[in-house]
Amino acid sequence: MTTAAIKLQSDQLFARKRLLNFGLPAVVLAYFIYIFFAFDLIGLAERARMDNARILVADSYSYKTHVTRDNRSGEVSFAIEGERKGAYPEGEMPEWVSQSGEETVIDLGDGKIATYDAQSITLDIPGYGLITSTPSRAKGVNATFPEGALPDWINASKNRLTVTTPGARLTITRNRAEVFRYSSGWELFFFTLNSPYHGAGAGQILFGDRIDPARSNVAGAAHDFWHNPMWRHGEVAWAMFETVLMAFLGTMGAAIVALPLAFMAAKNFAPFSAVRFGFRRVFDFVRGVDGLIWTIVLSRAFGPGPMTGALAILITDTGSFGKMFSEALENVDEKQIEGIQSTGAKPVQRYRFGVIPQITPVLLSQVLYYLESNTRSATIIGAITGGGIGLLLTQAMITQKDWEEVSYYIVLIIGMVMLMDWLSGLIRRRLIAGDESGH
Amino acid sequence: MADLTAAQGAQTPDIRAHYMDMTRRKRLYGGITISIFALLMVSGFLLADSRNAGGFWDGLHRIFDFPAQVVSEAWESRADMPSHLLTYFPSLIETINIAAVSTMVGALGGIVLSLLSTRGMARFPRLIPVFRRIMDVMRAMPEIVIALVLIFILGGGPVPAMIAIAFHTAGALGKLFSEVNENASLKPVEGLQSVGATWSQRMMLGVIPQVLPNYLSYGLLRFEINIRASAILGFVGAGGIGYELKNAMSWGLGKFDEAAAIFILLFGAIVFFDQLSSHYRNRLTHGGKA
User: Fold this and answer.
1) How many pairs of residues across A and B have Cβ atoms under 8 Å apart?
2) B179 contacts in A (CB within 8 Å)?
3) Where's the ABC transmembrane type-1 domain (chain A) (predicted)?
């Protein structure tokens, strides 16, 4: 070959490389530009509700305590998140509130003091001044402010006054006055206020005197924790269990169904090629229909619940397993089967002792891998069909206020999936000793 | 010689008894394992059945009612089918776009994460465990969690789904890619280092060319998975064909002919991309060079 020819060849090679190295990124870039407009990213920036994001982030790690005064009766009540489940029992109140006679003094932190007395409500904000309101049916909120223009964190009209400050908020209408104080943490996570164990330390519960005379400390605390009406630990645990159950039943059931069918779809075991072709198409069909459609179809027949989810996973994965198992079967070593056959083994024995031991590692590793991935799918299917932790998550999201519960569920889901991942990896390594790669 | 034979002869029944004993024990253990497993399966199914809204046996004969209804309605208005297919084609494109973008973005993230968490290549070797844990968390996060949170903030549409899928994809591909990286030769990296190449140059020129075919193969597989995921996320409000399906499926509307058109589109798309990706993956792994 002459030098010129070699040069020409290398020039061509370089030209091709250049085309690939510049052309491919250009195509990808063009695609991203198309997506930028197709997904309307400019409009998205306008539509994004950043205030929602703030609420979400703030709510996920903090809670608010409502101090509410009924303006007609003058009665003051305290409740966490303003829910009945979080209400303070009669005569109890947070430590930053002091009550004497008709007067209630609420310390909102940073020197801000709100006072409810017989007629009026005052809010003292350091650096701004005193806001006084004497609500009545006739005159509305009837508020007076310090001199000067109203700052934008005060929203006042005849019938409604809202003062929003960092860490606290005051709302007054004709019928009631309400102060929120924000504090961080997941309040009442262990015990609600009506439980005698609220506020007791772990040491006191385990080793201290009996708090509730009717039952032993550990049993009583466990019961109150499990039936906590605010966080519903018992129900959440059940939901997690249901999700894992869906994944387990779906995956294992699919493996059991797929194994015999895979023999029919493997080149070296199928009796006729038409049978093999038919089974392969069945697997493709089942896989192609996808878990989403199976879930919809099955939930019409069986209603929402874990059974529907398990069956949806079972059917979809029968397709995947059938395909993978039949590929594994096509790769088995014929020599072992012949060896078994030479001892006079019947077909079933040939499969049992000649084939199964060869494919077991592949099978188990696939099944365990799917078990982990199906835990995630079961969460999603649960959100669609209504079962397990997925349902709880969507329910908590729909209310748009229990974001601390949402973040709790997210932490639990991630923990659950990571646990399944770890567990399946552990079993895989134990059962398939020596196969470090896991495939 | 005679001694030896005699001695063997004396031991054989012993060995046989011992062997049979071991076999029996193995069978016993195997039997116990299988029966525990069977018990778990049966009780699990019974439990799931009892917690389901409708029972399994009550529903079993109704399993084909809904598909039959859809098919019959679609058959009655079969003349409209082409126009339905055409109507929903754009939303199918949206679903595929979501999958494609999130696969690309996720793969980029996965490449960076995998390089940062592979021994011998990591930019900050001390932080390898940190990046591994980050990938674990990303992988464990179901797409629906992020999608629902983002839908609350950004409103419905393709972007929340895209971000959610890309996030999960980055974690999942990062793990697979780092397994690929571990098998890559470090010699080119060392060679580049000896001439003073920066970390990004070492990675771009020393590692990526070695592992790119495997990356592409995993990326294609992920694309297949992501199409399914993006259809599902549509169902919870993130745009695309899943969203249309949910609307068509809502009770009482009786738009099952449209639902049938969507089923056909979705099924066709999944099968098409399955075949396409398995074709290219085969070429990438088995002598694509020829």
Assistant:
1) 178
2) 437
3) 240-424
